[in-house]
Specification:
alpha/beta, 14% strand, six-stranded mixed beta sheet
Length: 235
């Protein structure tokens, strides 16, 4: 048997040829794969690409531009601030008497009281009863003497507590909170203490004052004030 000896140069050439052929086939396969991907991407039935992620701090077009309505917290309203038919004005004693004069032709009952005066609060419901019964002929008014002149506590600061009591009593008539210190007022009108009730006749003049200055039994609406007012109405 004869063996044919191949020169080394010839072996290297064949090996190089085989390597180049393999590389060409590899490049061809990659090219066909790229063309296939391109065509598949152009397919109108292919799903759209997913939206890019939005990083924190970057604006996103996918976010809704519609304004969101803000929900405000409910406003808490205290009992004394609740809307009611009970009026309360801050006035001086002189302004209060001027209001009395405006009701000439009717009997006016003016009740001086305070939220710190238990006898005053005990009798106050009878003033409301008189208003409900004789409101067409009798003008009922209340005058709060709560303001005592304490520094840092102006008359306005007493308004919530006064209005709370008046609202509980359903005092829908005219109510005044005096802006003069109670002690100054008492000295001016020569009144030792409250409760006190002023009654003005149809002529606008004071015809009676009920108070406890004389001592003895305390006056009441039922025994003294109501009978006196009804007697004036009968005249």
């Amino acid at each position: 048997m004869l063996f044919r000896r191949v020169a080394p140069e010839t072996r290297i050439c064949h090996e190089t040829f085989d390597l180049d052929g393999n590389m060409q086939r590899h490049h061809l396969a990659l090219g066909l794969l790229a063309i296939g991907i391109c065509f598949s991407g152009c397919d109108p039935n292919s799903p759209p690409p997913s939206s890019p992620k939005t990083f924190l701090g970057e604006p996103s077009s996918s976010l809704s531009s519609e304004p969101t309505s803000s929900i405000s917290e409910p406003t808490v309203t205290t009992k004394s601030e609740a809307k009611s038919d009970v009026p309360l004005d801050i006035k001086s004693w002189e302004e209060t008497l001027a209001l009395v004069a405006e009701h000439k032709g009717k009997v006016v009952v003016l009740d001086l009281w305070s939220t710190s005066c238990d006898p005053c609060k005990k009798e106050f419901p009878h003033l409301v009863e008189m208003h409900n019964k004789h409101g067409d002929k009798v003008v009922c008014m209340s005058v709060s003497c709560d303001y005592v002149g304490i520094k840092g506590k102006p008359p306005e600061s007493y308004k919530p507590q006064v209005l709370e009591f008046l609202t509980e009593q359903k005092a829908t008539f005219q109510n005044i909170l005096l802006n003069v210190e109670s002690d100054v007022l008492f000295e001016k009108i020569e009144l030792a203490s409250i409760p006190a009730v002023y009654v003005f006749g149809t002529e606008g003049k004071q015809v009676k004052r009920f108070d406890n200055d004389a001592g003895g039994a305390e006056f009441t609406y039922e025994k003294e004030v109501v009978p006196f007012v009804e007697k004036l109405l009968a005249e």
